[in-house]
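TODO from last week: model VanZ-like domain-containing protein.
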Amino acid sequence: MRLNSKWRYAPAVICMLTIFITSSRSGDQLDTVLPWLQKWLPALTDFNPMHYVAYFALGLSFALAMGKRAATWPGFLLNVVLCLLYGITDEWHQSFVPMRTPDPQDLLHDGIGAAVAGLLVLIVYYLIGRRSSRNYTVR
C-alpha cells in the first residue's frame, strides 16, 4: 500500500502534537502521572526515558514522510536535524509552562531517540536491499 504524499506527513504531525500537548503540562500535572506510570514501569524514576521514546517515534514518522530518502546517510542526518530542531522549539515552549524549565540534557535524549530510529531505518532498508538482490531459485 502506497500512501499519498500528503498523508505521509500525518504521523509526524500527530507525533509533534502529542509531544507539544505533553510538554504543555505543568510540573504538578506531571507529578500526578508519574506514580501511575510507575505501576506499569517500576524502574521509571522520571520522564527522561520518555524523550527517547517520543523522539524515536518522531524519527520514524519523519522517515515515513521522507520515503526512500530516509534510507540514505543524508536522509538520516536530515531526520535527526529535524527532530533536534523540533526538540529545541519544544524546550523553548517549556520555558513558558509553569514549573517546567528547558533542559539541554533533554535535547541529548531527543537526539539519541531520533538517531536510533534513523539507524533502524537504514538497517532495515539495507537488509531488504540485500535480500532482494540475492538470486533465489525455486526447485
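Done. Helices lie at 10-23, 27-40, 48-66, 73-94, 104-133.
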